[in-house]
Amino acid sequence: MVIDPTLILATLASAVIAFALGWAVQAKARRQAEHHAVEALARHQQLSEAHALLDNKLQAKETELNRLHSALADARAREEGLRTTLAQQQQSEQRQSEQFENLANRIFEQKSQQFQHQNQGQLNAVLTPLQQQLEGFKKQVQDSYTNEAKERFALKHQLDDLKALNLRMSEDALNLTKALKGDNKVMGNWGEVVLSRLLTQSGLREGHEYETQAALTQTDGKRYQPDVVVHLPDDKDVIIDSKVSLVGYERYFNAETDDERQRGLRDHLASVKAHIKGLGEKDYQQLQGVRTLDYVLMFIPVEPAFITAIESDPDLVNFALERNILLTSPTNLMVALRTINNLWRFEYQSRNAQEIATQGGKLYDKLVGFSDDLLKVGRALETAQGSYDKAVSKFSSGRGNLLKQAEQMKQLGATPSKKPNTQLLDNALAETELAKE
């Protein structure tokens, strides 16, 4: 059988074509598989990045939650400490009160039992001033402890008050932005009102711990009128000047595009820096009659405006410090004012302690004088008792006593109009008979 070469060639061609087609199909399948693998890898990478981002956010939230838990624990610990201190103060006050009451009661009871029927008028003249001084001293000590306990109890409300005040002032600032925008005089007056409210909330008293709008003169004769001069213990002062920058901040806050927002932010920072330069050039440290610190506090009454400026330009604080200016907002200024108020409270308590020590010394001197007077009264009473006993002996006891002689005269015929005391007469006659025996 003869094989046709054409058939063989056709068969081989078919095989080659089939092989080529199979290889092409496999290559396409491999390319599709590789493409799918690349897409899967890309999706996996995206998912990994998204997962990492979510993990970072979760960790940040957990960190913030831990910080809040820690702050809550610290606040609770401080509250517990305040409660403990309050209880200790109340116990100390009670012990002091009981000690003074016991001291006074022992003195009066011991001495009054000895002399309650003798020379009452003289004792009252001595005891009344002493009792008044003891009561005054006791009241002074009680008032001191009561005031301190009230102040300590009020401390636990200060943080809440500060937070509420900050929120209220921020809301007020935002509500007044449009009304104040562009009117420098109105903005300045509003800033002074906010500063005055902070001073009142801090517990400081105008005319005592701080002065407002005080007219002061520098060494070169220039007159200035800072908003507030806060006095510190040890003859030191802090000057506070309110500066309001709202025009640029309002444009930044209400901007609809990034360009508008950036322009508003630049204007806001420029306004704050202009206030810093102007306040630094006044050189309040050279004012006569003010023992100020090296720095002047520049108060920005709008908390968000203050935070925005600081966050946008971290060098702004150093820019102010180079000109002896400390930037403050309602929050940190309230903390500073409360600290100053606590310094004054401790100063007043120290002065009260000195006055108590002085009064205690005077009370001790009075007690010494009182004890000397009591000894003198005792010796005088002993002398009077001796004289009384001698007089009674001559009158109604012993041989030849006056009452016996008078009775003998009556028996001899004397006619008296009064009769002697029967008991005295019987005692006199009985002692006379005993003397004869």
From TrEMBL:
<protein>
    <submittedName>
        <fullName>DNA recombination protein RmuC</fullName>
    </submittedName>
</protein>
<comment type="similarity">
    <text>Belongs to the RmuC family.</text>
</comment>
<comment type="function">
    <text>Involved in DNA recombination.</text>
</comment>
<feature type="coiled-coil region">
    <location>
        <begin position="44"/>
        <end position="106"/>
    </location>
</feature>
<keyword id="KW-0175">Coiled coil</keyword>
<keyword id="KW-0233">DNA recombination</keyword>
<dbReference type="GO" id="GO:0006310">
    <property type="term" value="P:DNA recombination"/>
</dbReference>
<dbReference type="Pfam" id="PF02646">
    <property type="entry name" value="RmuC"/>
</dbReference>
<dbReference type="InterPro" id="IPR003798">
    <property type="entry name" value="DNA_recombination_RmuC"/>
</dbReference>
